[in-house]
Structure formats: structure tokens, C-alpha cells
Amino acid sequence: MTRLIIGRLLFMVPAALGIITFLFALFHLIPGDPAIMLAGDNAPRSVVDAIREAYGFDQPLHVQYGRYMAKVLQGDLGISNYSRDPVVNSVIPRIINTAQLAFLSMLFAMIVSLVLGCVSAMYWNRPLDKVVTVVALLGICTPVFVSGLLAIYFFSIYLGWLPISGMSSWRHFILPVITLGAFQAAVLTRMVRSCMVDALGKDYIVTARAKGAPEFLVVFKHALRNALLPIVTLFGLGLGHTLGGSVVTETIFNWPGLGRLMVNSILTRDLPITQGAIFFFAMIFILVNMIVDLVYAWVDPRIRYD
Amino acid sequence: MSVDPLIEVKDLKVHFHTEDGVARAVDGVGFSIAPERTLGVVGESGCGKSVTARAVMGLIEAPGKIEQGEILLRHNGRTVDIAKLDPRGAEIRGIRGTEIAMIFQEPMTSLNPVFRIGDQIVEAILLHEKIGRAAARERAVELLAAVGIPLPRQRFEQFPHQLSGGMRQRAMIAMAMSCNPKLLIADEPTTALDVTIQAQVMDLMNALRRDFNTAIMFITHDLGVIAGMADDVVVMYLGRIVESGPVREIFRNPKHPYTQGLMGSIPSLADWGVRRLTAIDGVVPSPFAVPQGCGFAPRCPHAMEICRTRSPDLAEVAPGHAAACFLNQVPT
Amino acid sequence: MEFLRRYRRDTVGLFFGVLLLILYAVALTAHWITPADPMAVNLREVFSPPSAKHWLGTDQFGRDVLSRVILATQVTVKVTSFACLFAVLVGVPIGMFVGYRGGWVEAVAMRLTDMLLIFPIIMLAIVIVVVSGPTETGVVIALGIAQAPTFIRIARGVTLAAKEELYVEAAIAAGSGWPHILVRHIWPNISTPIIVQATLTLPVFVLNASALSYLGLGVQPPTPEWGQMLNEAKDHLITSPYLIVGPALALVVFVLSANLVGDAVQETLNPKLKKRK
Amino acid sequence: MTMRRVVSASLAAVSACILTASVASAQDAKPQLGGELIYAQAGEQFSLFPGRNLDSGAQDVWLYACENLVEMKEDGTVAPWLAKSWTVSQDRKKYTFQLEQGVKFHDGSPFNAEAVAFVYNEAKAKKFIYSSILEGFEAAKAESENEVSMTFSSPFAALIPNLAYRPLCIFSPTAYKTKGEQWMATNIVGTGPFIQKEFVKGEHIRFVKNPDYWQKGKPYLDAVKIINVPDPAIRSAMLEKGEIDRTVRLNDFDLARLEKNKDVKIRVVPSTRQYYIALNHMVPAFANVNVRKAFNYAMDKTGIVKSVFADRGAVLAKAPTLSPGVYGYTEMTNPGEDTIFPFNLARAKELMKNGGYEDRNKDGIVEDAKGNKLSLNLFTRRGGTQGDFQVAQLIQTFLKDLGVEVRIQVLESAAFGDAIKLGPTEAKYDMALLSWGIPTADPDEPMMLFTLTQAWKPVGSNRMFYSSEEVDRLSMLAHSEVDDAKRKGYVKQWMGELLRDAPVVFLPVLALNLGSRTYLKDDRILSVDNYPAPFAWFDKDEMKKQNIRR
Questions:
Q1: Is the full-model pTM beyond 0.80?
Q2: What homologous superfamily does CATH list for A94-299?
Q3: Which among C39, C130, C235 has the least Cβ separation from residue D251?
Q4: Residue A29 in contact with partner chain D when CB distance is under 8 A
């Protein structure tokens, strides 16, 4: 087990350098010039050249790369082209905001999906199961911006219970967490249902019943523990996606998260911010995946990790 | 049968309502098991012996349904009809594991792969007995030792996939015996094991029978195992009992052509190289389309006209020995 | 054949199966069955709510929403189905192989997948669109690659569990090579989560397509596409809510039927499930 | 440059927004002190340092703390602010400003000629982004404690309006020298009525009242909090609910609904940004003036304003490139017409025929004399400017009616930037949908960078590769002509030339919108996309009536 942890942590270093180099090459491959984005369409070339010179864009690629890597190795991720503000100041608070939203919505998704999934597996193919399936599917296909906007107009304006945007108090968390969580819950419910149906068909379930175990113990202990493996995979993936920040949810609920920052920085070719955002996100993602893999071994002893 | 039977099954019918039609898996079965006696239930696969066992455990759920019949169990002074109990109700759960326990054919998949052996046994104990976890763990280790598992304390911590087939079956038995049940139903426990382990498991069960004075309902298709284990025997074919009686009587003097056919197909050392093994030709008909009259008629060498129109009932052919065949009874 | 005979009895699966066929039929015959010309701009009938003439109303340029949804069905269904296929064909074999082989192969492959999951889809899309131009194939590849890691991880997860099963050891004992084992033994047993996941990600493909088209990376105008229409309807959700009905309904029908058909197929394929029903 | 110029300018000015003026004068109630204004903006990641950012969202934030020498009024005229008055040398190359006295920066350092000189010299030395606007600027010198002079290599008529451009505000040189440019990215220190108290990146910035502000008795508000809310639908929801007092860039289609809400006041003002299609004159068809004029007449501008901008987000253009609020703007429409090149498909087809293009083979697409089809591409962004993607689709339809086949090429915004920066030989676009904004409200920039022959891309912004001696001559004259009447004459002639030669296809002018609660008084909206509210105040009892409790 510890070998797994050390392996993954060691892997972070080459991964980080790999990502940064890849991104550097990528940004200079795809069209788009930050100097123009800053100066605006109608600025004369003299202005654009001035910016290029002031920001060091006119240096040959390898020089820019060398200078950037030198700074990175000392832990300085540079400053944003746009806001001229150290990248760390913009990215770190954003990651914390997104992490909060991601964990809470995944927690919500986990609880809802486990309950709904197991219930629909127990009452398999009976009306309740059909209802849960359709509700879950509807949850998957409603785009977040539709559910988000409607939720705001109903809860915040019509009923006036919840604040519309920002994140200052816990009440601000309710709508975004439920909207983002609902989508993930729908996906997870479907998977929980199909895995539980599998598990409930196995022989050890008959043994458990033969032991006189009550039905909820049979389902929630014996069957669920076995169905956890694919569910854990999907949970890890879901967490990865929400950690990446859902641009739409963040825009709708005005949640200053990583997703919006990353997308905007790509669109405005603000390379330092993109580098910083993806660098931190990569580290967290690798950590999350490591934890998911550790949970694997704990959940299913048959998978040896030595 | 002077002693009151522990369990008495009367005219039990269990049918499965599936899309492909109604399968009459158990079509009128009656027998009884006295305390501390072992009843062997033998028959080819698909004859309904496992379904009967599950019915006795109250494990029949949709699409299966107990159409009619009674399963009377005597426990602590009163008689309960298991057939009428709700499979997921509290009452049947009070019986499963304490009064009647069950072990299965596939030790590989019958134990939950993600829980430790010890925990699964402790769970069985704590389900029915209000004793502390520590006491339950101690009892579980004792049980593992009782079933002949070496180093029980280490095995307690291990997972099913870390044990051999035989070891796992012993653990199953330990779990079943954890609340010293009155009746142990063994659904082909030795089929998946190789011969040497089979013999050990059978010796273990005989020993347990003596120490825990438990009645056993031993289900198998292996006549050799029946000979070594059973006091009485019941032969099943196509959801019905075709012959029943004490084991020595059935082996020495089988009355029903099907039983005679089965006996003929066992190689025995005594007449090695002299007797050719006889096989029963034809195939067991499908439970979805049970033929008119006697189920065995299409394959019976002595089939008569009447056999194809009416199905014979069990009738006594000798003290304690009954057979359902018109050869030895006059149709009423 | 046998499969069809059993499948036909599952009413829900049948109903949505027919619905899915209708959808694909609409996709194939889109050009001929649109009530009005989906491209015809008519600035006098801007934002007219649903009426007899325009069942789903008209959009910002007075174009008939119903015909645009029908034409968009062709584009979206084609793009998402191919992208889903691409993701499955790329992701699942890799996942199975990696899950089965284990060792350093698995470690390296999984880390690369993690890296791929890190980049937001629009990053991949920009690169691919630059290389292949904003054509539909470009969008299909972009969407496919973005979802491939999901399938790699799922396939690996279930293969890891499946390879512990007895029948796999039996197959090895019988001397069959790993390709044989993967195809004949492991795949039938892990098809359940994969089928479920494939049908589950369909809506994700459509929504990602809408994100791409929003950035001008997806399908080029004026060809309509559900995702793009959903995006445009978003800005008028409060003033003319009926605009969202067309694309949203089409999306729901497409995803609902794909998933329920997936369920029904999975049921008929997996007899053990059948008996317990 | 005497005061005369200012007086005559205001007299001749066209009052862009009668509504604002009338409301202001009718307001007899005395301003009340106190309260915190919450203002929601769409912008997000911008630098607060004026030297490194032209983003109008950022300008709208730092204007509370950093003031200019002169202040732009609603009608486009310029009024004295930190500079009480100014004089121009005989050769028109040296301007001398007399500064307000006893003014201090927020960090306590004195505001004087030394500070002003430092800011503009630093701008030239460190090449601040706005430095190109001060064309020909050589040096600034502190003549005395509160008199500063600026010398130019050649007469520069547009200096005064350009000085009102927000990025040219005077920040505290002490703070700049001690803390450095990077610190200034998140802190703005000036002489303004409000002092920056708190800045949370990407979320909000909060200013509090400057107790010893140089204009006594002002400001009235205790604090101003500016928050980022990217989605327009959310901003309008917050305005309706009263979570914010004021917001901008509302969705045009929501305005009709908001106008019905009695607690909300909606103001719409034409901006200085006009849409146009850049026609690549290297394409043979566009070298022909008849074709260019035909394309202009083929555009149903009223249809665009109605369907894309809900009759609110844009107004019909009454003059080429310039719009109300810009110096030298006068309506250039013919009598009885509400816009330049009014929609007339018949006339457009006739012009196409004169230009040699006719649909000879009746396939719905015109061909030239040699028979090759007129099939062109149209480059556009999506979301770069409000409604760009929708306008492009309408252009495609209008030109199809004219018989011209158009393929829209939607490019991701940065890729689009690259595609339209190329020179005459490399440019691949036949047409490109763009907009020309005039942040300084002075025609000098469009004249020198848009239509000038020397300003062909990649040097200037003449993406049409258009060249006309007459236009060049008029532009050069207007650039250095200091006399007010003469300069306006040249600008008018320049506009006349653009109408005669139609180098581009002129489209409607974008409009700005500002939504505010009715209890907020005296906040302003300027056509250069600025929404200053430093001297706004709350009508407390009306606030209570709308039960706003914060």
C-alpha cells in the first residue's frame, strides 16, 4: 500500500513538468496572440509590439520557456498577462472554492445515488424502479444551466428563500451543490442500480438470507459492499470532473471557481494562469485518483496491490 | 415412527411463474425428518430437490410461489407452518440460522468475498444471540476449530479467496452450526469437492450430528454419499417422490424402476468386471410440460398402459418402505 | 431470432426501442420531413410563441424551431453516436488490456489517462479543431477523446475484478492467450457497466457539443445542433421559455430511449437477471 | 486653446440622453448622506493598474479612486477636473495646465505638477498600453508647484478629450515607486472620492468614503462595493430582488420586462461602438464601389436591431463610424431617411448589375462577366461583441437574397484575432464582421487608424486595404487642426467621403444599458461605456418603501 502512495507522489514531479512543457508547446501551436487580446482588435501594431516587448512575448520560444521553467523550479508560477497579478493569488482561492463545491456536491450525489440505486435494485423492474430510472435519466439530460436558472428563479426570486449568487454564507451553497450534485447523482444512481442488480443475484446473498439476516442488512451490507467497486470508479471520475470545475454551474451561480478561470484563461491565451490552474488541478487530480485506488483495495480485498 | 417428527412436509407444491410458462418444480412432495436423524434426498439435477430445500428454509420468492402444502416445524413446544410465513417476515428469520441452517454446493461463491471468514460467522451468531462481540468471536474461533480448520485464529482474519475449497466448506458448516440448529439442510455440499475432501466433510458432518444431535437433510445426486450418510432416503423424480424408505432397504431392494435404474448405474467393487453398468435411456422431461400419468413412464422399461394415463401415489410396499409405481400396487 | 422474441416481451424496452428507431429515422430523413425550411429567416415573425403554423414557435430570426430541431437531430445524433462509439472503441480495449496486464504497463497507462482527464474538453477541442478544421469529424474526435478516459477507467476497474474469477484461471489453464481471454471471457462479464456507462454518457456528449459550439469550435452555422440551440435558448429562458422545449425534449427522448434500450438489451442478454425478475 | 473651445463645444453638443438630463434637473430633493452602493459588473479578471489595462470594466472600477485632469460629460464635452484650466502655446505644441490646490493622494502624498509630470513621462518610458493615444507626446514638465506642461512634436488636436480617457488618470507616484507595478495590479491609489479598502480577486472590490476629498461635502455614499456576476440573467434577477442597487450589460430581451417593474429604472444610451463588415478590397468584387454600395443597401438594419437587439441593444447608424457623443458627430442621413444606406433590395440589385454582377444562369447566385459565381466567406467571432454571431447569420441571409453565396466561418476568439491581423497578401477573409469603438469619443483614432492608407494592416487597423487620397488628406488635416470649427468641417467632409465611397458595410451602433433601483439618484452613464456613480446618493425613505434591508 505504501508503495502505491510513494509511487504516486513521486509521479507528481514528472507529471507537473510534463504538463507544463506540453501546455507551453500547445499554446504556441494553436493560433491566438495574448498581446492582441490585451491591446484589442483595433489597436495599431505599435501598441501590440509595445505590449509584446514589455511582457517578453517577443523573446524566442526557448528563452521564454527557459525563463519560465527557472521561475517554476523556484516555486514562482509567474504573473497573469491579463491581471498582472501573481498566478498563485488567482488560482489558489479558486481551487479552494471549487474543491468545496466539488466535495459537497459529490457527497450529496453519493448519498442520493446509494439510496435511490439500492431501492430501485431491491424493487427491481417494479413501478418504483421504473420511476427512479426515469427521474435519474431526466436528471442526466437536463442541462445544468436550465436547472440552475429555473432553481434560482423559483427559490431565490419567487419564494425568496435563498440568495442568488456569491458564496458568503452556507445558504449560498444550497442551490449550486444541489444543481451540480443532481447531475452526478443521476449518473451514479444508474450505475449503483445496475451493480446492485448484479450483486443481488449472487449466491452469498442466499447464504445471508439463510442466516436469517433481515432484508436491509442483506441489501445494504452484503450486496452494497460488493457493488462498491465500479461505483468507486465512477465516484472518482465524477469527483475529477467536478473538481475541474463545471464552467456552467460556476457562471450561473457566480461561483468563482477553477472551471471558469481555466476556460477564460484559455480563451484569452493567458498562458501563466492556464499553466497555474492546470498545474494545481493536476496535482489534486492525481491525489484524488490515488485515494480512489486505495479505496479500491480496501473495498475489494481480492485486488492485491502489493 | 414413534418419536414426533422434527419437520413434516405434506403435499408441497412449488411452481415458478416465468414468461416461458409455469414450471412445476415441486409437484406434491411429502416427507418427515425425526430429530437427530439424517434424511438423504437423491435425484438427478432439476428433479426439485434444491427447491424443496429452499422451501423448507422459506427462501421461495417471486417468481417462485408455494402453491399448496404444509411444512410443519416443531420448535419450543409449538408447530409452525413455514409454508405460510412471509419469506421476508420476522418470524421466518427467527427460524433461519437457529432452528434450521443451510449449507450450499459452491463454497467459492456462497461466502461473501469482501468480508473476513470470522466476521461472517460472528454475524450469524449475533443475529440470533444477544452475546457480546468478544464472546461471539471466541465462539466463532471454537467453531472453526470444531470443524477441523487448523490455526483457527489466523483463518478467522482471512478472506474467503485465501482458503481452499474444502476449508471454505468447513467454514460454511461452522457458520451454519453457530447457533446449533435442530435441522441442517445440506444442498449438495460435497459435489464441488474432490473425493478425499468429500470423505473428510462427511465424517465431520457425522461427528457434528452426534455432538450437536442435529437432524440433517442431505441433498445429493451421489448415491455413494447417501449410502455413507443417510438413515432414511427419499428418491425424487420430476418434482415428486417416487420411492422412500430406510437406506439399507432401498439399496438392497429398490422397488421403483427409476431407483433400480439408479442402483444399476453405480460401479461397485464387489462385482468388478462382471456386471455391465446399465444406463437409463431418454432424458428427464421439462418441468414446463409435465407428461400425463407417471413422469418416468416415457423412460420406464416396464411402462404399462395405465402408467401413461394416471400417476401413481406412494404406497407402502414393505414396513417403512413406499414406492409410487403401479408394478407393485393395484390401481384403485 | 431468440433475442428478439425475448426482447419483444419487455414493454418498456420495446416502446423506447421504437422511439429510438424513430429518432434515427428522423435523423436519416431530416431533409425531407421538415415542415418549413429550417434556414428561412423571417424578421417579421421573430420570437413568435408556438402556433398552428409553427408548432414549437420561431427563434430569434423567425426560423421555425421544429424544423431546426429535426435537422439538428441528424447532426447531433450522428455526431454523438460516432463520438460515443469512438470513445468506447478506444477506451474499452485499452482499459481491459491495462486492467488485465497490470504491472508497470498499467501504472504508466493510468497516469497518462489521468493526465488526459485533467485537460478541459475545450482545450482538446481547440487543438483538434486547429489540426482538422471545424468539421464534424473534428468534433467527433474531440468529443471522443474527451470521454475515452472515462471508459478506460471503467473497463480497467471491472477487468481487475473479473480477472480474479475462476473461469479466467480456467481459461489460462486451457492455454489460451490473453486476447482470447479478454474477448471470450472477460468482455461478456463486464459488458454490463460498459453498456450502462455508454448510454449514460450520451447526454454528456450532447452537452459538450453545445459547449464547443458556444465557443465556435463545434458545428459551423447555419446548420443547427441541439447543443447550440440549447445555448441560444438559455439567453431567452425567461422571456421566451418555449425556445428551450424543442431541443430539450429531443435530448430527453434521445437519452431516455438510448438508456432504457440499453437496460432492456442488457436484461435479455443476461439470463440470470431474467430468472430473478 | 482657450476656454472658448469648451463653451462652443457644449453649445453645439447634441444632448445624447435627454432622459438623464431631465431627471437630474427635476431632482430638487437635497442629496442624503450614507449607505453602501452595491454595483454588479460582468467583467472579471482585469488589472487595476491604469497603465496595463484598457478594459472598460476595469476603468469602471478605478474611476472611484483615480481621477483625470479633465472629466467627460454626458454630451461628449470635456469639463475641468483636477486641472482647473489650461492654455496652449502659439505653435500649438505645448499645453500648460493649472492644477487644483491642496489635493492629496490617498496615501497622504501631495497631488502636484511633479506627480502629473511623473505619470505621463513614466507612461512614455515604460510604454503603458495607452501611450499610443498621446501621439507625438515628447515630455511633461512641472513648471511650478501646481502648473504642469506637456510638449508634443506636432500639434495634436485630440489631447483634451484623450486626457479624459480613464486609463490616463493620475495615480500616486509615491505608491508606484515604493510598491511597484505588480502591487498596483490589485491596489489603486489616487485622489478620488473613495479609497480602496478590500479586493478579493474575481469576487468583489470595496471602496470607502474619502474623508478629506478635495471637493468639500462630497461624496454622499459611505461605501461602494463592486461585485462580479458574469451571467446577465442572474444580474437582472438580483436587480429585481434588490440584492444589488445597480448593474450594466443586461440582456436586451430582459429590458422590456424590467421596464415594467416600478422599482427599477432602465437607461439605454447609444455607445461609441459601431458594427461594420470589413470588405477585403483585394477581392476583385470589392474593388468596385457599386458592389460595396449594393452590399450596404442589402442590409435590413431595422431587422437586425429588432431581432438581434430587441430594439434596445442597438440603434440605427445615422453617420458612418461616428456616433452621438463623439466630437464632430452630425447626422449624415438624407432627409426622410432614418439611417445611412437604408434597406432597399431593389436598388442593391440594380447596383450589382451596374457593377457587372447578374444572375445569368438563374441558379440564384450572381456571376461576373466571365461567369464565375460570387461566393464569399465571412469571418466572425462568437460572443466577442454582443450579438456578433447572430448578426453574421443575418448578413448571410440578406446577401443570399441579393444573390451572393456566403459561408460563415466562426472562429474561436483568439484565432479570429490572428486571422484579422494579417497583411493584404496573407489575409484569407473576404469579409470580416467587426466593430469600431471610440473610447476617447474623439474621431482622431478612426481617421488615423481605420481609413488611412498608411494604416493598412498589419501596421494600423485598415483591414479593408482601402486607399483614397481625399480621405487621407482630410484625416491629416483634422489630425493637427486645432481650430474647432475647421476641424469639425474636415470630420464632416471625411464622413461624406465614406458615404460616397462606402469602403465598408455600415451596420447599427451598439447601445449601452444601465439598470438601477429608483431609490438611487445622480448616478451617470457615458457613451464611452463608463458608468460613474461617485456622487450618487440613496433616497432613504423610498429605499424603506421597497423594503431593502442590508
A1: no
A2: MetI-like (1.10.3720.10)
A3: C235
A4: no
